[in-house]
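2024-03-11 09:14:02 DEBUG pipeline.ingest accepted 1 chain
2024-03-11 09:14:02 DEBUG pipeline.ingest length=194
2024-03-11 09:14:03 DEBUG pipeline.predict start
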Amino acid sequence: MPGILELLKRWLRKAPAPVRFPLESPARPSAPPARGYDRVALIFELKRDEGYDNCVYFDSLGILTTLIGHALGHVPVTPEVRAFLEQPGVMDRPFSDEAGEAQFFSDLAAHEKELRILADLRGVDFDALTDRRQRALINMAFNMGTRRLGGFVLMWAALKLEAYPEAARQALDSEWAPQVGARANRIAAMIHEG
């Protein structure tokens, strides 16, 4: 299994310079956003925060997951079924690197598209945000989904007013922050400092 550096090198050979993430994956180019964010930095951040496993596993909340935080769905599983699924040979058949990369970019494009809609509904110009603030919001959307992120009403209100220290405080003043620990602190710092 290639490491992150090998995957990034392979991706960089395909990517145009400068490395910015468009709305669609590189295989399906579209008009780039007015202001992009550093795709390589986001990949490192998501791999650090979500982890990477090319096999199916149960995440910390018991959700079947694979690759870089790709949730397969939350289904109630009895302890007996979970024990069976975790036996060698059941969930440890790996996805190919190509399938993993395609799924990751598909997930990322979907999260960004939903996040742009959410930001617009909340009166926040996503493209006017700094690179780090864009990546922070995408990271949050990747972690909890845009539906749950939409519930951070006071954070969105602060972002609309460009009150970034308050937006960071509101991100930390949530049930989500203690669940993800240091990740929440890193994201809040990105929102605060820009």
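2024-03-11 09:14:41 DEBUG pipeline.report The chain has one domain: 4-193.
2024-03-11 09:14:41 DEBUG pipeline.predict end
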